[in-house]
Amino acid sequence: QVQLVESGGGSVQAGGSLRLSCRASGNIYTWYSMSWFRQAPGKEREGVAAIVRSTMTKYADSVNGRFTISRDGFTTLYLQMNSLKPDDTAMYYCATRREFISSDDWSRPDLYSTWGQGTQVTVSS
C-alpha cells in the first residue's frame, strides 16, 4: 500500500512563499499523474498543478506564473508557491494516479485513488 505525506504548509503573509513536499512510501512503482489539489472550507476540491507522464506540467489559471511543480523521481513531489495570496488559503493535498488519463483530465479529483492527509496553507492579508 502506498502512503503519501505532505509537509511544508504554514501561515504566511500575502506575498510570501512556501514550498510543499509530498513524499511517497510503500509499494511505489510509477505514476502516470502526480498532482496537487487544494480545498478551502465550503469549497470544492480543485486541481492546482500536476505532472503528467513524467514531464508535462499543468497549472490552474489561478496559480500559473506563481507556483511551480517539480518532482524527484516518483517518490517526492514539490510545489513551490510564490507571491501567495489570501485566496490561496486551503488544505493542500497531493494525489497520484497510476493509470493513463488524458492530460486534460489532470484536475479531476475523482480520477485519483491515492491521497495524502493534507497540509494547511494559510495566507493572511
Give an overview in words.
- The chain has 125 residues and is an all-beta fold.
- Helices cover 0% and strands 50% of the residues.
- The chain has no helices and eleven strands.
- Strands 2, 4, 5, 6, 9, 10 and 11 form a seven-stranded mixed beta sheet that branches. Strands 1-3-8-7 form a four-stranded antiparallel beta sheet, with no helix packed on it.
- β4 and β5 form a beta hairpin.
Helix count equals 0
How would you spell out the order of helices and strands?
Answer: EEEEEEEEEEE
Mean pLDDT: 95
Q: Quickly give the structural class.
A: mainly beta
Helix content: under 10%
Overall shape: it is globular
The value of Rg in angstroms is: 13 Å
